[in-house]
Design brief:
The complex is a heterodimer.
Chain A: H1 9-17, H2 38-42, H3 55-59, H4 61-65, H5 72-82, H6 91-98, H7 112-116, H8 123-136, H9 144-159, H10 164-171, H11 181-189, H12 206-216
Helix pairs in contact in A: 1-5, 5-8, 6-8, 9-10, 9-12
Chain B: E1 4-9, H1 19-31, E2 34-38, H2 50-53, H3 55-71, E3 75-78, H4 81-96, H5 98-109, E4 121-123, H6 124-132, H7 134-139, E5 149-152, H8 156-159, H9 162-165, H10 179-186, E6 190-191, H11 210-226, E7 231-234, H12 237-245, H13 247-254, E8 262-264, H14 265-272
Parallel strand pairs in B: 1-2, 1-3, 3-4, 5-6, 5-7, 7-8
The chains are: A mainly alpha, B alpha/beta.
């Protein structure tokens, strides 16, 4: 059966990268146990059930193309400790998954990891949680990926719809636009984009949408 | 059979960068005597990105969109895979978590709305297959696409995670999907089997991870080309945008010229029904439609 065992060295390299252990400032002579309540344990969202089989890591199309990408299994592991109330690392570990190219921002959202997991752990759910934690902890950098996520809220509040051209311009911060000029011109010529990116179709009952965005927002950037 | 009637959630793309998708959706609905009531009040679904920034806001906005289908007492039909996934994911989470539903409804109450969970949400592809029927569709075909090898490109968000979709996508097998293949056959075309048909096009990381996204697009078109496809067809406007407009970046990334005409599934059906290409918006394609 030996020929059916795959070489998972790259998997373990990524696993180790996210500091896959509890980082806790425990007193030398603690006077009581650090009790984790059942509801606090539920916060792990069963991330601790992962058996490190590697199925998600090797079905992820990004790990195949981008050798630096940490991958869904290690992201689940990072979340498992980030969500643990006893863990004190927080930003130290989040910084690792917040890096461009290796971190969560390069996920293509293909849902392969959620589909393949034999333990129904749903890695993409944890990847989303890590994104949320990065914003909550205030360590989101002002880069193309964060601007891309944040722009949706601004555009929805303003138009109801996503301003598609506006998303590219805002995310690329203007000067990155040169990469998209050729395709953009073709799209304008074919009637796929308006020459004026300020012209955006608007949803009806826009005041209602704007009000909901205002009263339901839970994040800041 | 009584007339099929749906609340149409167009999504943003059909109103902006894929006008041809909106045109062809309306054109075939008319031919098939399906009534589509456009949800003009609907907002963007957040496209799988808003929830990374603000998960709760994403839930509230998607729940609001569903409210307007519920108010009309209709099933919501989507024409974008990502709209389908985001809306369905919201429905699943709210329906199984009364506490979360109450929190969302607290916000919706401020604008006089309430999410109840009474409307189903289904992608137009599966509404056509499950409610209209492929047999009935194939009887309407006047211009069979018999001379074409057509490569189906399913798009991730209609088939994965299957746990979310199974009740609304005919229990499609995410590893061996059939629906789009069956639709091609019903339109009289020949379906092309290839490895990338259920894979990712890279759309959602196009700006953040351009190389990864371009390789995925390149691989998809290459897979179709190497299996003698004359064209590709997809139910997702985001996949369409990627495959139709990004072939130059994709060619560079995979080191080979890759390019194929790409149809929206609505356009394929329309062509088989004998509808004029211009009424299906083929003039809006970047990778030119060269076979009509």
């Amino acid at each position: 059966m030996k020929d059916l065992i795959i070489d998972k060295d790259d998997f373990w390299v990524m696993h180790d990268k996210v500091k896959p252990f509890l980082i806790s400032d425990v007193e030398e002579h603690p006077e009581h146990e650090h009790i984790v309540t059942p509801s606090e344990a539920e916060e792990l969202l069963e991330a601790d059930y992962c058996i490190q089989c590697g199925a998600c890591h090797y079905s992820c199309p990004v790990t195949e193309i981008n050798e630096q990408f940490i991958g869904p299994a290690a992201f689940v592991k990072a979340y498992r400790f980030e969500a643990d109330v006893r863990d004190d690392a927080h930003i130290e570990r989040l910084d690792v998954v917040n890096e461009e190219i290796q971190g969560v921002w390069d996920c293509v959202k293909c849902m392969e990891c959620a589909e393949v997991c034999p333990k129904d752990i749903n890695p993409i759910e944890k990847i989303t949680k890590l994104h949320n934690m990065i914003f909550d902890e205030g360590i989101a950098k002002n880069n193309i990926a964060t601007r891309h996520a944040v722009y949706f809220k601004d555009s929805i509040a303003k138009h109801g719809q996503l301003n598609e051209a506006g998303l590219v311009i805002y995310s690329e911060k203007g000067y990155g636009m040169y990469k998209h000029l050729k395709v953009g011109m073709k799209m304008i010529a074919k009637g796929k984009a308006h020459i004026n990116p300020l012209i955006v179709p608007k949803s009806e009952k826009l005041d209602e949408i704007a009000k909901l965005v205002k009263i339901s927002s839970t994040s800041k950037f | 059979m009584s007339k099929l009637k749906y609340a149409l959630f167009t999504g943003c793309t059909a109103r902006q960068s894929t006008p041809e998708q909106m045109m062809s959706t309306m054109a075939i609905a008319e031919k098939m005597d399906i009534e589509l009531v456009v949800l003009e009040e609907a907002s963007c679904c957040g496209a799988s990105h808003l929830q990374d920034y603000d998960d709760f806001l994403s839930l509230v906005l998607n729940a609001r969109n569903i409210c307007y289908a519920e108010q009309r007492g209709m099933t919501m039909v989507t024409i974008c895979n990502t709209c389908q996934l985001n809306t369905m994911m919201t429905k699943r989470r709210l329906d199984k978590d009364p506490e979360l539903k109450a929190k969302v409804n607290e916000k919706l109450a401020e604008v006089g709305l309430e999410y109840k969970g009474t409307s189903e949400i289904v992608h137009f592809l599966y509404a056509i297959i499950d409610d209209f029927g492929l047999e009935k569709l194939s009887k309407m075909v006047v211009k069979p696409l018999a001379e074409f090898n057509i490569a189906p490109f399913y798009g991730c968000h209609n088939i994965r995670p299957s746990e979310i979709h199974e009740d609304s996508n005919g229990h499609e097998n995410a590893y061996a999907p059939r629906s789009l293949d069956d639709l091609i056959l019903a339109c009289g075309g020949k379906n092309v089997d290839y490895e990338e048909k259920n894979k990712c096009c890279g759309f959602h990381a196009e700006l953040q991870a351009p190389h990864t996204a371009a390789v995925l697009t390149g691989n998809a078109i290459m897979g179709a080309m190497d299996n003698n496809a004359d064209m590709m067809v997809t139910p997702c406007p985001l996949c369409h945008l990627k495959l139709d407009t990004q072939y130059e970046h994709a060619s560079k990334a995979v080191g080979r010229d890759v390019k194929l005409p790409v149809l929206h599934m609505q356009q394929m059906i329309g062509l088989a029904f004998g509808i004029e290409g211009k009424d299906l918006g083929i003039q809006h394609h970047v990778s030119e439609i060269n076979f009509l």
